[in-house]
Specification:
Pfam families: EACC1 (PF19953). With 117 residues, the chain is of the alpha+beta class. The chain is built from three helices and five strands. The chain is globular, with a radius of gyration of 13 Å.
Length: 117
Amino acid sequence: MEIYIKLTAGDATEDEVRALLQWIRAGEDDGIGARLVHGNIPEDHLGPLTDSIAVAISSGGAVAALAASVREWLRQRSTDIRLTIEKPNGVSFHLDAKRVDSPEEVLERFRRLFEED
């Protein structure tokens, strides 16, 4: 399954997108594949983009690894960043660097995303 991650608010810059991509790629051995997406994703999804990250997940363990990785990356940000995580069917949720949820809450949000159709 593939999801899209976009930095959607605050101090979101191309450098931050690339930093998150690099952070996620560090976990590619965990069944996670990530690539930068330029241009537009279908308009019923995230809308016009300059950059977002497409993440391919191959197993339930990869969901947990991705959730932990994204949470830790956000926790280390000193800027106001908001992530939108979305499946191709339009189901999505947000994570905010100003209020990073507990590891359990972030994992649960990712799990619910992958359970919904």
